[in-house]
C-alpha cells in the first residue's frame, strides 16, 4: 500500500473509491451483441477498425444502427462524433474508444493494443459500465423557439465577429455579473481537461456532477469587472446567460459542432439529468488519464 507523502497522512486502502468511477445503480451486467463503429477517416484508423469489425462479426456480434456498444477508433474528436451520432438514438448505448493519435482522453486503448482490445471484448461476459455527467444548454429565441443541446465536452458561446461579447450572467435567478470579452465555455467534468483547461479552468473528476464556466479573454479594467476566474456550479444550480446585443447574434460550438445563432434572448445551462455510459473492459483511472495527457507516461 502507498503512503501519503504528508506526515500523518493515512494509507490509501483502495476499496470502492479505488475504482475511481462509479457504476450506475442497478445497472444490469450483460454481454453485448450489437455494435457499431465510428472511425476517423485515415488509413491506420480504418485498417484497425476493419480488424475489429471482422473479428466481432466472426464471433457472432451484429453490426446494428441501434447498437449496445459503440466503438470509436481515432481520437477524442471521434468519440465526440460517436456520442452525437448515437446517443440521441440509443441513449443506453455504451461507448469505448481506441486511440490512434497522440492524445486521447476518452480512449481506453492505444493503437498497438488493438488485438488485446478485440480479445478482451470477445472474452468479457459483461464489462463494467460507468457514467459521466453531461451539460444541457437551452437556447431561447425571440420567435419562441427553444433548442436544447447536450454536450459531452463543452458548449462555447462567443461573438460571431471580432467585436466584444457582452452578456448578463445570472445564477439561480440572481444576477451575478456582466461579462465582456471573447466568450464563455460551459464544460462538463470530462470536458474540463479540454478547452476549459487551456484557459485556466480546473480539472474536475467525472464523479462530480457539475458545470464549469470559464472565461475567454475577459475585459477587466477600472470600468468593467468580471470574476476573472472559472467557477463551478453543482447539480440543480441553473446558469442563465442574457445576450446584451439587440440582435442576439453569436457563434456556438457544441463539442466542436459550430453554428451561427441569431435572435437568442437567453441561454439556460445546467447539469443534465441524462448521463453518457462508457464500457470499461479494463481499469483506467481518471487521474491516470490526466497524468498521461498532461504529464506524459
Automatic annotation (TrEMBL):
Provide the GO MF annotations for this entry. Answer: ATP binding; metal ion binding; NAD binding; NAD+ kinase activity
| GO biological process terms on file | NAD+ metabolic process; NADP+ biosynthetic process
Protein name, per record:
NAD kinase
Q: Which NCBIfam families match?
A: PRK04885.1
Q: State what this protein does.
A: Involved in the regulation of the intracellular balance of NAD and NADP, and is a key enzyme in the biosynthesis of NADP. Catalyzes specifically the phosphorylation on 2'-hydroxyl of the adenosine moiety of NAD to yield NADP.
Gene3D superfamilies documented for this protein:
Probable inorganic polyphosphate/atp-NAD kinase, domain 1, Probable inorganic polyphosphate/atp-NAD kinase, domain 2
Which parts of this chain are annotated as the region Disordered? Answer: 1-28
Q: Which organism is it from?
A: Hydrogenibacillus schlegelii (Bacillus schlegelii)
Which Pfam family, any one of them, does this sequence belong to? NAD_kinase
Say yes or no: keyword Transcription regulation present.
no
Indicate the residues that form the catalytic site.
76 (proton acceptor)
Q: What's the catalysed reaction?
A: NAD(+) + ATP = ADP + NADP(+) + H(+)
Protein keywords:
ATP-binding, Cytoplasm, Kinase, NAD, NADP, Nucleotide-binding, Transferase
Instruction: Locate the residues binding NAD(+).
Output: 76-77, 153-154, 180, 182, 193-198, 217, 257
Instruction: Quote the cellular component terms of the Gene Ontology held in the record.
Output: cytoplasm
What this protein needs as a cofactor is: a divalent metal cation
Recorded E.C. number(s)? 2.7.1.23
Q: Of which family is this protein a member?
A: Belongs to the NAD kinase family.
Q: Where in the cell is it found?
A: Cytoplasm
In terms of SUPFAM superfamilies, this protein maps to: NAD kinase/diacylglycerol kinase-like
InterPro entries tied to this protein: ATP-NAD_kinase_N (IPR017438), ATP-NAD_kinase_PpnK-typ_C (IPR017437), NAD/diacylglycerol_kinase_sf (IPR016064), NADK (IPR002504)
Amino acid at each position: 500500500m502507498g503512503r501519503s507523502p504528508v506526515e500523518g497522512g493515512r494509507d490509501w486502502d483502495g476499496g470502492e473509491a479505488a475504482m475511481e468511477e462509479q457504476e450506475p445503480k442497478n445497472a444490469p451486467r450483460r454481454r453485448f451483441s450489437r455494435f457499431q463503429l465510428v472511425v476517423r477517416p485515415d488509413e491506420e484508423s480504418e485498417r484497425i477498425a476493419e480488424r475489429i469489425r471482422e473479428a466481432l462479426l466472426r464471433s457472432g456480434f451484429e453490426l446494428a444502427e441501434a447498437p449496445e456498444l459503440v466503438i470509436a477508433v481515432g481520437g477524442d474528436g471521434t468519440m465526440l462524433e460517436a456520442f452525437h451520432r448515437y446517443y440521441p438514438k440509443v441513449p443506453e448505448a455504451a461507448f469505448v474508444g481506441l486511440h490512434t493519435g497522440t492524445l486521447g482522453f476518452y480512449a481506453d486503448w492505444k493503437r498497438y493494443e488493438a488485438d488485446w482490445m478485440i480479445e478482451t471484448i470477445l472474452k468479457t461476459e459483461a464489462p463494467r459500465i460507468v457514467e459521466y455527467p453531461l451539460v444541457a444548454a437551452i437556447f431561447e429565441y425571440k420567435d419562441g423557439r427553444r433548442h436544447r443541446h447536450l454536450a459531452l465536452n463543452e458548449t462555447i458561446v462567443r461573438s460571431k465577429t471580432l467585436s466584444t461579447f457582452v452578456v448578463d450572467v445570472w445564477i439561480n435567478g440572481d444576477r451575478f455579473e456582466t461579462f465582456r470579452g471573447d466568450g464563455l465555455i460551459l464544460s462538463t467534468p470530462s470536458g474540463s481537461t479540454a478547452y476549459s483547461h487551456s484557459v485556466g479552468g480546473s480539472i474536475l473528476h467525472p464523479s462530480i456532477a457539475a458545470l464549469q464556466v470559464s472565461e475567454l479573454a475577459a475585459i477587466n479594467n477600472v470600468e468593467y469587472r468580471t470574476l476573472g476566474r472559472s467557477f463551478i456550479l453543482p447539480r440543480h444550480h441553473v446558469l442563465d446567460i442574457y445576450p446584451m446585443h439587440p440582435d442576439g447574434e453569436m457563434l456556438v460550438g457544441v463539442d466542436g459542432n459550430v453554428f451561427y445563432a441569431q435572435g437568442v434572448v437567453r441561454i439556460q445551462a445546467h447539469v443534465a439529468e441524462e448521463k453518457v455510459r462508457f464500457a470499461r473492459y479494463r481499469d483506467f483511472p481518471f487521474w491516470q488519464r490526466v497524468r498521461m495527457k498532461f504529464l506524459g507516461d
